[in-house]
Amino acid sequence: MQTPEQYSEDLYLKDEVLEQVRQSILDSGLNDVSIETGYGRLLTLLVMSSGAKSILEIGALGGYSGICLARGLREDGKLLSLELKEANAQLAKNNLVNAGFGHAVNYMIGPALYSLEELESRDDRFDFFFIDADKENYPNYLEYAIRLSHPGALIIGDNTFLRGRTLNSDKNGPSVLAMRKFNEMIARDERLISAFLPSYDGLALARVK
Ligand SMILES: C[S@@+](CC[C@H](N)C(=O)[O-])C[C@H]1O[C@@H](n2cnc3c(N)ncnc32)[C@H](O)[C@@H]1O
């Protein structure tokens, strides 16, 4: 029997652009740890529904989520993506250009914490955040996202379950501890209104009050 996720995905026609992105990641010798197809679709829907004009993504890889985010942007909207590795940012950029979003995207290369510090020093603000990089820094990324947000901004974080490790009390490595802290912040921080989606590897959604 199909999983609910497989059943839902099979309802849609093939997305040639996004399939090509996944192939380009594999062709580059990288693991395809892009966002799941159903959640990519949700990103587009959320960006479009929120009317976001400025998006900050943390973790670009090959640009899969970047394209999903850009698809929801208004004509004059911008996506800034923070990526540790230059080669990944280049791959993502190529894929965004091929998808017709070259005009809308910029990359900052290096550890995201440094880039976030720079953005804060410039007093930059964003309407939408997608957190999908090194898990140990998720609580730090969330704190920065709240500080860099316009009121009403949306913050989305991927992989909240860490393939089940978050829920397993025998697992207590740094990524797991950080993800538990991130999830608790999402649920309890008084600056946020939030919800969790338990499909795939889990997704956290929050709105800054
Ligand atoms: C899960 S992948 C991102 C997938 C992408 N969001 C998508 O769905 O298409 C994580 C990415 O975060 C990047 N990354 C890891 N540590 C980072 C850091 N400290 N700062 C910025 N990027 C980082 C990795 O190089 C990798 O490209």
TrEMBL record:
* Alphabetized Gene3D superfamilies for the sequence: Vaccinia Virus protein VP39
State the Gene Ontology BP annotations. Answer: methylation
Originating species = Paenibacillus anaericanus
What protein am I looking at? O-methyltransferase
Q: Name one GO molecular function term.
A: O-methyltransferase activity
Listed Pfam families:
Methyltransf_3 (PF01596)
Q: Which domain of life is it from?
A: Bacteria
Stored PROSITE patterns: SAM_OMT_I (PS51682)
Q: Which UniProt keywords apply?
A: Methyltransferase, S-adenosyl-L-methionine, Transferase
